[in-house]
Amino acid sequence: MDSTQDKTNFDHLVDRLNELEHRLTSLEIKLKAEPGESPTIVEETIEPPKYETAEEREERYESTIGQSWMALVGTIVIVIGLCFFLSLSYETLPPLIPSIIGYFLVAGIMSLSIILRNSYSNISRYLVGGALILFYFSTLRLHFFGKEVAIESPELETILLTFVVLINTIISLRKNSVFLTSLSLTLGYITALVYPEILFLYLSLIVISSLSVYLKIKLGWEKVTNYFMPLTYMTLLLWFFIYAANVKILDGQLSVFSNSIVVLLYCIIYFIGNLKRKEPIEESLGFGAFALISSGFVLMIIFTFINVLKAESYAYNYFLGSFVFLIFAIILWVKEKSKYSTFVYALMGYFALSLAIISLKIPNYLILLSWQSLLVIATAVWFKSKLIVVANFFIYTLVLLGYYITTESVTVFGLSFGVVALFSARILNWNKNRLELKTEQMRNVYLISAFFAIPYTLYLTIPENFVSISWIVTAIIYYALSLVLNNRKYRWMSIYTFLLTLFYVAILGFTNADTTYKIISFLALGLVLIIISILYSKKKILNK
Prior knowledge:
mainly alpha
């Protein structure tokens, strides 16, 4: 029996060896190796990551400063020196000569940049930039800086400067240089500032803004609008402050509404630039910051023009801004499901709407702001933005406190704050899954606001003898809501309101001299409490 088992094990071992030999033969065929030879297996070598040493880092910094920064600073210094040279008043020479000298210098610098193009590319690029600036300044010298000028007409000078900006931009684009193109278009902003005609300013800023957006979309220069967007708004503000003192210039040229339309047009242009990107890029905080700066500048400019020009009716300017910003938020949400930009534009739209409501100068405008809070909640649900919900609650709280602190006589319309809070809580409850609100905190704070706002408003507006009755009615309404909505929170609000009423009635029982009122209050409260107790008892029996 043992010999039979040994023979079986031996046969199994032979089968295993034959199987291994077959596998080795297959492997040799795949590796194209002769039988009996040891196949050479080439292993891929992974180079270890190279770490920059402190010495190498220092050498790189030194090279950057020596090659790039020194060339840039040196070019700037030379150009500034030449501009000072050309700006001098040469009384013995014809007024055209300084500009002609400048043009010859431009030709010399451009020739030098061509010579150094292959061997010293950094210096060559900066020299081209210096030549473009000097070309512009030489043309500027035709009308400015001298006692006698070569060109008297500011219109002709503006045309020449615009022509120079156009040539510089074409040269920069042919070199496919972001630096040179940005420099050339910046000179366009300067041209808009030196000419006191607001229509030219508007058109110049529209053209430059549109061109910067086109370059971003067509050439993929993603950062170029980050530079031109704030520069556009600052140029408009600077032009206004330069010429604001000159009544003749501003007379008939400026109106708050026309300026609001134009500044919003700039905002639309840059919004399109961010919306139509060459390649889809996942939204980051940078996009939200861009939206905040752009919309913030718009509201600041509108506010500045309203106050400096002392406009009497200006609410529609803010209404227009609010409409545009909310449209932006809707487009971003529908098209990209944007998180940060949608939040910013929506918040700025609501802020502009608040300014518009305040600008109407109507009594109890804070009540309108409270109803606006309900609109904010509704759109926040659509945008799925918890950020808007949280921000709106803090604004609602400030408006509520502002109403009670600043209003001389609270009216029954003050109940709007409590009603808005109740509706807000219901909207959040209906859409808690859409907003991904995992906690009840936001709903609770709105309900707490309603719990205090409604009794306090009734206390201030209802005659003293009917305060407790109004609170009892409020508690009954809460209890009815709990039954209709099958929501325990309203039952607790009803119970707490009854306790508040009980406390109030107890105090009046010792302080109020009106015996009839005290009797009615105690009887009404006691009767309602007993009825509520009976309802709870029946509910408990039914549950069993």
